[in-house]
Amino acid sequence: MNKQNISKIKFFFLGLENRFIDDNSTFKDIKVVYTTGLKEFKGVGTYFEDKINFNFNGITSVLTIKEVLSKVSDDAQQYDSLILTYSERGSIITITGDNKNVKMSTKDNKSEQSADSHENTSTLLNRNYLIKVGKANNLLKAIGIMSKDGKILNDKIRKYNQIDHYVELIDKELDSLPKDTTINILDCGCGKSYLTFVLNYYLTEVKKIKCNFIGLDISEGVINSSKVIAEELAYRNMEFIAKDIKDYKPTEKINMVMSLHACDTATDMALALGIKVNSDLIIAVPCCHKELLSQYNYDPFKDITKYGILKARIADALTDGMRGMMLESKGYDVSIVEYISPLETPKNLMIRAQKTSKERPTLLKEYKILCESLHVTPALSTFLDERWKS
């Protein structure tokens, strides 16, 4: 290739170099194909500890991104043309060059496997999925939703619909997160981290948002399982920590706190942590509600609460309602919606809280008056008091 076009290639390469240095957590591989006449010569590089394991002509070297691109541009002088592809999670950048022209293009990085039609499984909902079969095949297989041959497993259809609906319910809130920065998301009581992996895929590969995820769970077993899946998927923008929620202290700004089916007061721990770190967004799907059931005592309701099942249902509503009140008093815009059908589980509410203002002392006063009227001390209030003293 002539020197003029080699110079153009180096200019494009500079953009790739900066891209890798700025955030290499989504980098997948770099491939180059040189041609001379009818002959092709191929090289490939994969990620290795912030560098690239690059193989060309049977020789493998561990190089920096700058060294790889410098080598490619130098070697290109010996050939008629080149095609370089720089693959990331969600996109592929292609640079082509010969003695006539140099071009660069970007396109979505679709799954190499064909997308099976949802019609193959009649019980899938007739909806426009955000986590699409085909593009998300690697993810869906890793978390056990899809079989190796690309079919949604019959006993996982409900789970697939649930995780996709979860993303749909918070999609608007995700758009409210800060722009032009790396978003840090904390999953409290992450368990097997299905939703964490799904959100990682959606933010990184669909919405093209830079993000880091921290999964927190007291069980070392599920934390180790999550680490294995993250390694399998090459999701390097994740870390998993075995620790109690109330003992965790973040070292960087947390933009979003999420909690899915954390039992009883573990949900309150997550909400308290989100408030304490001034998280931009808090999303919680509470699980069992036991705490207020044994506490609340409201005399005007005594002829209703003598029926145990009604007392329990009122306790559920009070628990989540008072969580919403506390969040509002801390400057959050709160909505409480159905996450899934109550036919699947009665614990089906989602609390969405977006930070929009300063604290509201008047609302906090109303919250405390209600606590006195009901003779309750909610765990969320207790956890916040403890954190204020720290």
UniProtKB/TrEMBL annotation:
Q: Which GO terms describe its cellular component?
A: cytoplasm
Annotated membrane-spanning segments are none
Report the Pfam families cross-referenced here: Methyltransf_32 (PF13679)
Q: Where does the Methyltransferase domain lie?
A: 158-294
Full protein name: Methyltransferase domain-containing protein
Print the organism lineage. Answer: Bacteria, Bacillati, Bacillota, Clostridia, Eubacteriales
